[in-house]
Design a protein that fits this description.
Blueprint: H1 3-24, H2 29-36, H3 40-52, E1 56-58, E2 74-76, E3 82-88, E4 92-99, E5 104-111, H4 119-124, H5 127-139, E6 144-151, E7 154-156, E8 159-162, E9 167-170, H6 172-182, E10 190-194, H7 195-205, E11 213-216, E12 222-225, H8 257-260, H9 262-268, H10 278-281, H11 285-291, H12 295-319, E13 323-326, H13 328-332, H14 334-345, E14 350-353, H15 360-375, H16 377-382
Parallel strand pairs: 3-6, 6-10, 11-13, 13-14
Antiparallel strand pairs: 1-2, 3-4, 4-5, 7-8, 8-9, 11-12
Helix pairs in contact: 1-3, 2-3, 7-15, 9-12, 11-12, 12-14
Bound molecules: zinc ion (ZN).
GO molecular function: kinase activity
InterPro entries: ATPase_NBD (IPR043129), HTH_MarR-typ (IPR000835), ROK (IPR000600), WH-like_DNA-bd_sf (IPR036388), WH_DNA-bd_sf (IPR036390)
Keywords: Kinase, Transferase
């Protein structure tokens, strides 16, 4: 075998082992050898490389295990490098530090009217959040593997368009990288994605199946596969569901967002306050009214559920998903909303409510950094 081939093979195998540990932790070397088909000696050597770089930790034999042949339990190293997540919402900037196992070590939330100014102002407002997160990471003696950024919009050719923020064709990656340089932080990866794609990844990393679809969002309504290898994320909120329906700020007509979006649902329920993201407010006014069985709120819920189910007709025809996870703000509407959507959709499709909270997108943003380290650990080790 050529030297290059051996190197490429090692890169592949170390990623394979890392991925299995990420997915199935805690797991033993014997188990890894069985699942990968590699020899135990090869697995031990790959694991040694990962533990040496503090990407994987051996918890040792299970307490109480009979002596003899102790089986180490391998996990992603909770004391290894960390990932930073940042999220831009219309009224806030959220930040989080995750360890490799996905556990939050610190959170920051800054109220800021991101939608009021342009993108440069909004991103500059993230500087104190970034500084605090980096200070926390440094104080804890952690290396930062990168910064993931979630935004309530879509990313196309590296440029962000976010209707709730009034952003069009924004080089968000470049703006965040400039903020990092202003903080004297150099050479860090910045990964930008829509909040829906990020929340879908958070769902996957929390244990949901790879072939499920995620539907939801806090600021927008989007659709994304849970599979971290897929980069597709659809802006379902601006799929037309009503012919000659209400005009939409996107330029379209009868968009789903006009029936199931936060302001539209609040207006339909007769609420003066449309509410803000649950990160700031906890529960939305509409969700509270739904629980109280307020007739106006229930009408708005049913109108939204019908529009959403209608938008899913095309999705079903195109992607034939078996299971959809309803997340974000729509999950906050609870079992009543899920039930209404299922009732309209009919059988053949399972709809589940996400168990993640309103921080799913910011955690998923940091999760993308972790996913990148897991997918190519040698790049981190060699970098
Ligand atoms: Zn629209």
């Amino acid at each position: 075998m050529e030297a290059m081939d051996a190197q490429a093979m090692r890169r592949h195998n170390v990623a394979l082992v890392m991925e299995l540990i990420a997915r199935d932790a805690p797991v033993s070397r014997v188990e890894l050898a069985r699942r990968t088909g590699l020899t135990k000696a090869t697995v031990s050597s790959l694991v040694a490389e990962l533990t040496g770089a503090e990407l994987v930790r051996d918890l040792g034999p299970e307490p109480g295990r009979a002596p003899g042949r102790p089986a180490g339990r391998l996990v992603l190293d909770p004391y290894g490098p960390v990932a930073l997540g940042l999220q831009f919402g219309s009224g806030h900037i959220a930040g989080v530090i995750l360890d490799l196992s996905g556990r939050p070590l610190a959170r920051r939330l800054r109220r800021f009217d991101v939608a009021a100014g342009g993108a440069p102002d909004g991103v500059r407002a993230a500087r104190p959040v970034l500084r605090q997160l980096f200070d926390e990471a440094t104080t804890a003696g952690r290396l930062v593997a990168g910064v993931g950024v979630a935004v309530g919009g879509t990313v196309s050719h590296g440029l962000v368009s976010a209707l709730p923020l009034g952003w069009h064709g924004v080089d968000l990656r470049g703006l965040v990288a400039a903020e990092l340089r202003a903080l004297d932080l150099h050479g860090l990866d910045v990964l930008v994605a829509g909040e829906v794609a990020c929340a879908a990844l958070a769902e996957y990393q929390a244990g949901a199946a790879r072939d499920w679809l995620y539907l939801g969002g806090e600021e927008v309504i989007g659709l994304a596969p849970l599979n971290p290898a897929a980069s597709l994320a659809g802006d379902l909120g601006h799929v037309p569901v009503r012919r000659r329906g209400e005009p939409c700020p996107c330029g379209g007509r009868g968009c789903l967002d006009r029936y199931a979006g936060r302001p539209a649902m609040a207006a339909a329920a007769g609420l003066a306050d449309a509410g803000v993201t649950r990160l700031l407010a906890g529960e939305e006014p509409l969700a509270v009214r739904v629980r109280e069985q307020d007739p106006g709120a229930l009408r708005a819920l049913h109108r939204a559920s019908e529009a959403l189910a209608d938008a899913l007709i095309g999705v079903r025809a195109l992607l034939a998903p078996e299971t959809i996870v309803l997340g974000g703000r729509l999950a906050g509407l609870g079992e009543a909303f899920r039930h209404a959507v299922v009732g309209r959709l009919g059988s053949g499709l399972t709809v589940r409510l996400s168990r993640l909270g309103p921080d799913a997108a910011v955690r998923g943003a940091a999760g993308r950094v972790i996913a990148r380290v897991v997918a190519d650990p040698l790049a981190w080790i060699e970098g």
